[in-house]
């Protein structure tokens, strides 16, 4: 095992290997913003056969370069990249990868290697074993970045942990949940704990409910094979949305150190009750009303009798003094009417004696797009009368921080992994605690063949879908 693998910052003398470099993640989330150390090298690895020119052509097509300066930066960036194809289950392929690594590293005394598994979970275990056996350097620091979903339920997640344990120390493993790298998600702890007025009201005495919603205006196009095995609950809710919920609900950490934050996250996760089927709505999209957008089951990679949910809304509860009785409502859906991820903290009604039917206060954190934080509040309408009007205190980032660039989640997290900072990565015991909340529900949905998701047309509003159900969230 490499010494001090934990928190040493990796700099120029490092190679990042992206396994699954031909895939959707690499395509959608490749960025270059000059944050990486100058001399770092990047190797793409996947089964797809491509020569160097084809790979560079693909990388270039993923990155937008609206200015000449950015075009020049892109040229420098692709100069750091190379590609090698190979299988995920054969020593020979990984021996080739090692040789390529040694070639790229030249005569460096230390080989610092970061392996990024941008792969479907089905190959995480064999790939991690082959990497350890064939590509783990004798001298230097090695890190393994693992993508979500980390398993399919509590058992498979434990199996994955067990498979990693003998080969990789917890210090070396970075389980990435890219929602933890999003600017507004990183802001949650600051908002809560650096503002007395939020701190003081952040509990069941003042808060009626908490909502975290994720909407996408596109279906599973091209990813049906992966998605059908997982569904929206495993794809987005058990990880991204639950991470957001955890940050909203946890107690103040003793410090911002990775372990102090993660200790508090685990504590609150352990207080969340397993989700009950009666508190859940599931849906699956069908063709759009104009027939232009295909339904989920029209995707060739999806079985025609699939019961896989592409929409889910559910309520969960935290059994502790702060949150007892407050519903935390999570909603996620593909093929809806818009792209939006939002947190809504709805406060309780004010005493009604002098105010009739006033809307509740609400704190809204728009995670994406157009990052913003606003508080819905009541105010006097300017003028002679005492008329009350619902208005907003608005912190829209584009206006307030117009000269600052918000980093992409992956940029920020990959830099954290190079720095050895685990604060925004998932710890092994967090995984256990989070799967415990979802596993009974997932097994119930998997096992009961008579449970069919409600159909909704492509492009529908999530609000309309929850209204279609007998269980009311809104
Ligand atoms: P892809 O389905 O695009 O797979 C990535 C690569 O893995 C493919 O290009 C393919 O490369 C190889 N691959 C695909 N299917 C199999 C298979 N059955 N067996 C072996 N290899 C296979 O996945 P994504 O890039 O979308 O996702 C990768 C990981 O990243 C997943 O864990 C996902 O949850 C996560 N993720 C994805 C996001 C996204 O927006 N796409 C966002 C956040 C996380 P080849 O055939 O060339 O070897
Ligand atoms: C991924 C899911 O984890 O997150 C995808 O696998 C989803 O299905 C994606 O589209 C959403 O990420 P973002 O950053 O675009 O909100």
UniProtKB/TrEMBL annotation:
* Protein's recorded name: Glucose-6-phosphate 1-dehydrogenase
* Gene3D superfamilies to which the protein is assigned, alphabetical: Dihydrodipicolinate Reductase, domain 2 (3.30.360.10), NAD(P)-binding Rossmann-like Domain (3.40.50.720)
Q: Domain Glucose-6-phosphate dehydrogenase C-terminal spans what residues? A: 189-461
Say which enzyme class the record assigns: oxidoreductase
Q: Does the keyword Oxidoreductase apply?
A: yes
Record key words, sorted: Carbohydrate metabolism, Glucose metabolism, NADP, Oxidoreductase
Instruction: Name the job this protein performs.
Output: Catalyzes the rate-limiting step of the oxidative pentose-phosphate pathway, which represents a route for the dissimilation of carbohydrates besides glycolysis.
Looking up Pfam families in the UniProt record yields:
G6PD_C, G6PD_N
């Amino acid at each position: 095992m490499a010494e001090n693998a934990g928190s040493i910052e990796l700099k120029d003398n490092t190679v990042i290997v992206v396994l699954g470099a031909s895939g959707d993640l690499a395509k959608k989330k490749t960025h270059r913003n000059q944050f990486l150390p100058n001399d770092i090298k990047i190797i793409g690895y996947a089964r797809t056969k491509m020569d160097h020119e084809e790979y560079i052509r693909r990388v270039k097509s993923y990155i937008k370069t609206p200015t000449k300066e950015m075009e020049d930066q892109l040229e420098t960036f692709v100069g750091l990249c190379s590609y090698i194809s190979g299988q995920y289950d054969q020593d020979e392929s990984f021996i080739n990868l090692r040789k390529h690594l040694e070639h790229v590293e030249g005569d460096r005394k230390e080989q610092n290697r970061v392996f990024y598994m941008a792969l479907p979970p089905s190959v995480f275990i064999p790939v991690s074993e082959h990497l350890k056996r064939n590509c783990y350097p004798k001298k230097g620091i090695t890190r393994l970045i693992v993508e979500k979903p980390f398993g399919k339920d509590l058992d498979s997640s434990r199996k994955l942990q067990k498979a990693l344990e003998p080969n990789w120390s917890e210090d070396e493993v970075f389980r990435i949940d890219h929602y933890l790298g999003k600017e507004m998600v990183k802001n949650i702890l600051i908002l809560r704990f650096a503002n007395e007025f939020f701190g003081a009201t952040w509990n069941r005495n003042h808060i009626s409910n908490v909502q975290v919603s994720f909407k996408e205006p596109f279906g599973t196009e091209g990813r049906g094979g992966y998605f059908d095995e997982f569904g929206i609950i495993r794809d987005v809710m058990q990880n991204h949305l639950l991470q957001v919920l955890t940050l909203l609900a946890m107690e103040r950490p003793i410090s911002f150190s990775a372990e102090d934050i993660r200790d508090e996250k685990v504590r609150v996760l352990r207080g969340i009750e397993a989700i009950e089927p009666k508190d859940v709505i599931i849906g699956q999209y069908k063709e759009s009303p104009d027939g232009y957008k295909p339904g989920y089951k029209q995707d060739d990679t999806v079985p025609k009798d699939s019961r896989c949910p592409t929409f889910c809304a559910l309520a969960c509860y935290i059994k502790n003094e702060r949150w007892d009785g407050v519903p935390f409502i999570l909603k996620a859906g593909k093929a809806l009417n818009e792209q939006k991820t939002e947190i809504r903290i709805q406060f309780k009604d004010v005493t009604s004696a002098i105010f009739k039917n006033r809307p509740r206060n609400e704190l809204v954190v728009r995670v994406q797009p157009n990052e913003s934080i606003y508080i819905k509040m009541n105010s006097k309408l300017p003028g002679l009368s005492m008329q009350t009007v619902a208005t907003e205190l608005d912190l829209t980032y584009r206006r307030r921080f117009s000269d600052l660039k918000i980093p992409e989640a992956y940029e920020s997290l990959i830099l954290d992994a190079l720095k050895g900072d685990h604060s925004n990565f998932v710890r092994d015991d967090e995984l256990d605690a989070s799967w415990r909340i979802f596993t009974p529900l997932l097994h119930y949905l998997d096992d009961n063949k008579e449970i069919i998701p409600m159909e909704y047309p492509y492009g529908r509003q999530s609000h309309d879908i929850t209204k279609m159900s007998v269980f009311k969230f809104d």
